[in-house]
Amino acid sequence: MCQLLGMNCNVPTDICFSFEGFSARGGKTDHHSDGWGIAFFEEKGCRIFLDSQPSVISPVAELVRNFPIHSTHVIAHIRKATQGEIALHNCHPFRRELWGRYWVFAHNGNLPDFRHHSMGFYQAVGNTDSEKAFCLMLETLRKCFPQGKPPLKELYLILRKITQEIAQIGVFNYLLSDGEHFFTHCSTKLSYIVRQAPFAAAHLIDQDMTVDFRELTTESDRVAVIATTPLTDNEVWTPIQPGELLVFQDGWPLKHAFD
Fold first, then answer.
1. What is the pTM assigned to this prediction?
2. Which of 34, 42, 69, 203 is the most buried (most CB within 10 A)?
């Protein structure tokens, strides 16, 4: 299956270190070589890079590894195709507009026999189960809240309901953000780490590379990194429990805000 990488933080931060290890999984240290993509929110704007080539040989991925784009919300994906051919229109993350904001989505898993071909306002461009699920999610939110984005708790409860319904079809690990809130759902495998003061050095699993975050941060910085499997071997990552939908804000999971 595919692999996911996300970042949510309280100040704009670059993801070069994490993406260095993550992109190696797209054909070097793992077999996810059917395309890749990454999205950076910058205020109300959203910068997206996609390529159907494996991330280890993609010139676009090389640009992202070496160009420190600063963002508070980042979603990245490397693809192992299960539904849909290897093509640019099937590369994640996908982007749509809702309530005057961009929404970005990436999925890891497989939804066999997903039949929602006609969903009203939102239509899939490619032929993946992932994009169809994203369209259904946004269509549901649009119909439930036609006047605009609701308070976070109301949004969370509806999103959790539609997520649970889709997850009954198959494996539905995903990352979703509108640049204000960052949602993560785990069906099978997803972990996160929160880096904050006192910062320390981190070493990648997929590359022999170490960064000392004490040299790059301030005492008030806080960064949450979410990944299908941990990216570093000298830090403690927290597994997200199967069936759990988390919201991250300012680099911190709001674990009990909606109980």
1. 0.95
2. 34
Phi and psi torsions of 117, nearest 5°: -85, -35
Sign of CA dihedral 103, 11, 194, 153: negative
CA distance 91 to 109: 14
Active site annotation includes 186:
no
Q: Predicted confidence band at 8 (pLDDT cuts at 50, 70, 90)?
A: very high
**Of 2, 9, 91, 186, which one is the catalytic site residue?**
2
Alpha carbon separation from 157 to 12, 95, 154, 176, 241 (Å, rounded): 28, 22, 5, 15, 18
Which residue segments constitute the domains of the chain, with CATH numbers given?
3-253 (3.60.20.10)
Rounded to whole angstroms, the Cα distance separating 135 from 111 reads 14
